[in-house]
Amino acid sequence: MNASVTPIGKRRRSTNIANQEFTIAVSDCRFAAVENRDYVVLDDMLRLWRRNNIELSLTGALLLCDGAFVHLLEGDSSDVERMFSRVRADPRHENVRLLERRPLVRRRFANWPLAYVGPSRWVSRALHGHDLAEISAENADEAGYLIDLILSFVGDDPGEATALSLSA
To answer: What is the CATH number of domain 19-166?
Structure first.
């Protein structure tokens, strides 16, 4: 996956961990940009989603593979819920399944307003035997695997580099 990296400004983030939560969900995506592999449009969408997360002081990640998104969000519980309400209301996301919601101990994606892992043969190989279309809260042990997988691609701390531009 070719990517150029651009720094973005610093974000304000609550240090009070008491009202913070971590949430991971999976949805089937019906995005023309995804289905048509229109990476210019997808890149624009990622910029918008990152701005939305920055405005809400959310951090997290998005993995796209085989027509499914894995959504990870960290932040104030009400803001995380607000963002997932947007996802659930968006007709481009179908069959939104919450895998896990728990109090946040520490942010795993602290410097990522929205890390992105896109479709590639490496992601497909890593997900072999993990059918995103079938993952639900009943097999929530998959949540830990997905978190570790995303972190293996993006790392815990990208430093100043947080905005990826996808090659067309």
So the answer is: 3.30.70.100
